[in-house]
Amino acid sequence: MMLKLTKFVLWFLLALVNALLFWAGVYLIQNYYYELGAIIIIALILIDFFIFNPKAYPYRYTIPALIFLFLLVIYPIYFTIKTAFTNYGTGHIFTRQEAVERLLYDPNYTYVVEKNPIDFKIFAVYKDEKPTESFLVLFKIGGETYLGKMPIPTVRKGTEVLLREGKLYKITSSKVTIDGVSYEFQPTLKDVNQIISKDKVYKLLYSSEDLSLERNTYYFILLIQKYLSNAEYIDQETGRIVGVKVDTDGRWKFFFINRLYRLSFEEVKAGDKTYKKSVIINTKTQKPLIEEKGSFYDLDENGNRVFLIGYTAFVGLENFERIFKDERISKPFLNIFIWTVEWSLFTVLLSFSIGLIFALALNNRRLKGRNVYRTLLIIPWAIPYFISVLTWKNGIFNETYGILNKIILPMIGLNPIKWFNDPFWAKVICIIVNTWLTFPYMMTISLGALQSIPDELYEVAAIDGAGRFARFRYITLPMLLTIVAPLLISSFAYTFNNFTLIYLLTAGGPPMVSATTPAGHTDILISYVYKLAFEGRGQEFGFASAISILIFFLVAGISLINFKISGSFEEVRGE
Question: What is its main location (predicted)?
Fold first, then answer.
């Protein structure tokens, strides 16, 4: 019985996972995330294949690893490469279809056709003497009465609701039936103060003519903000559109409006082929919008370009060219790159040197209390990273109440140092703190490497008359570097992209005064990319992705050179 129950639960969970993954894949594809949706569908097919095919039984244990490999490694790499060749960022988030849809249907892109406002009354259902959000609008247009029901959210080709639409129904008597629902206007059609519909009673809430209803302005504004500010009422007979706008006196009123842009098509020749391209036409000037590099521009009265909206577009190598050709970017980028290499190199060399000194001392069998010293020296490595960094930042290097500026420097007659506002000292403390955090790791790997060197080599060298320094230079160091060289290279690569320390300690500051991008003197390349992507006046995801790819090749190139250098030590060991 228990076995059957277990099988049922497992099959149920499998069916649930299939349903969820299939729904997620379809949903992502419908929302234009084709690649991620395809990855999820492929993962679902592989999961089912591994489970239902007896020959693929061993592979079912790799299912979790494959899922995380696709989602956390392969897809981010693909997305970064794809984004690097686009203008994706602030002002260029939408697809072209979404951008066109906004220009065509967003109520912000409308204009008033007739300056005279339309008389209107708003009726709402009251509950506990307070108006609810169930309302009707009564319009007086050219001596005729029109009824507008609560506008319905309308989704066009995209996924976002840009506007609400409603119809204008012409009312000719005090009792009418619209879409199967009866409405009675009381007391008369000319002077309505309430509307009865089935079991609902709509009472007069606000009127453009009745100043006594100004007390309900608050509720009227709520309806405007939530329902009417992006609503359009369409006259079924004439096709005219009624919408709400702010009048010259600062009040919300209804006007006849028209959409500022419309869609058209023009023939474009590409070689011997001719195809139709969609263009956006300004309905007031009858001139097409300028579409360039993923942006739509209109012309103002003076003929100057006015940016309207942008969309994600392919820009080729433009982001990469920008790094080197735009002096506003290339200059801070070059300075940041040089500092990143310096910071990585100095930190690795300094932490390795200190770690090696402690390792040599702890490797001495005559040293008493080695276990105690080893435990104490490993503490910086054991303490959580962010706690150590914030302790150094606020407890030691704080310019106001830090122990150095407040106690130690005054004791020896020195002036306080601007640790975080002076570029030189800011770089110094970055190297100091990172060395403090990494030397225990270097000490540990060096200690392990030292213990693997045979004692016989030192005995033979001592017999030949080699001193301690000679033994260290010709035996210890070459053999040690052979073992730890790959670890030093990986440590260099890790430090090269050590975003956490820079972000917590200096946040990349102090800022470069001459830079037009959010660059700081202690920014490393990865923190600079972060600022470009998420801080500053706008996000530049495409440009940040391009720099990320460049960082990858820089680290890969430097690591390759280091690996070749480490190969020379292999030759020494072989000899």
Answer: membrane
Read off the pLDDT of residues 427-446 as tens digits, 9 standing for 90 and up.
999 999 999 999 999 999 99
On whether the CB atoms of residues 234 and 165 are closer than 8 A, the answer is yes
Tell me how far apart the alpha carbons of residues 387 and 436 are, in angstroms, rounded to a whole number. 13
| Measured distance CA(244)–CA(198) in Å, rounded | 28
Where in the sequence is the domain holding 289, given as residue range(s)? 261-311
Q: What is the 3-state secondary structure (H, E, C) of 171-230?
A: ECCCEEEECCEEEEEEECCCCEEEEEECCEEEEEEEECCCHHHHHHHHHHHHHHHHHHCC
Are 478 and 378 contained in the same domain?
A: yes
Same-domain check for residues 245 and 283: no
CA distance 233 to 254: 10
Query: How many beta carbons lie within 10 A of that of residue 560, not counting itself?
Result: 11
112 with 61, same domain: the answer is no
Per-residue pLDDT at 140 exceeds 70: yes
Does residue 160 have a pLDDT over 70? no
Calculate the alpha carbon distances from 142 to 145, 204, 236, 479 in Å.
8, 22, 15, 98
Q: Do 227 and 155 share a structural domain? A: yes
Is residue 99 domain-resident?
no
Query: Cα(2)–Cα(305) distance, rounded to whole angstroms?
Result: 74
Same domain, 474 and 568: yes
222 CB neighbour count, 10 Å cutoff: 13
Q: What is the number of domains present in the chain?
A: 4
Give the CATH number for residue 487.
1.10.3720.10
What are the pLDDT digits (tens) for 318-370?
999 988 888 888 889 899 999 999 999 999 999 999 999 999 999 888 888 88
* DSSP element (H, E) containing 77: helix 75-84
Identity of the amino acid at 45: I
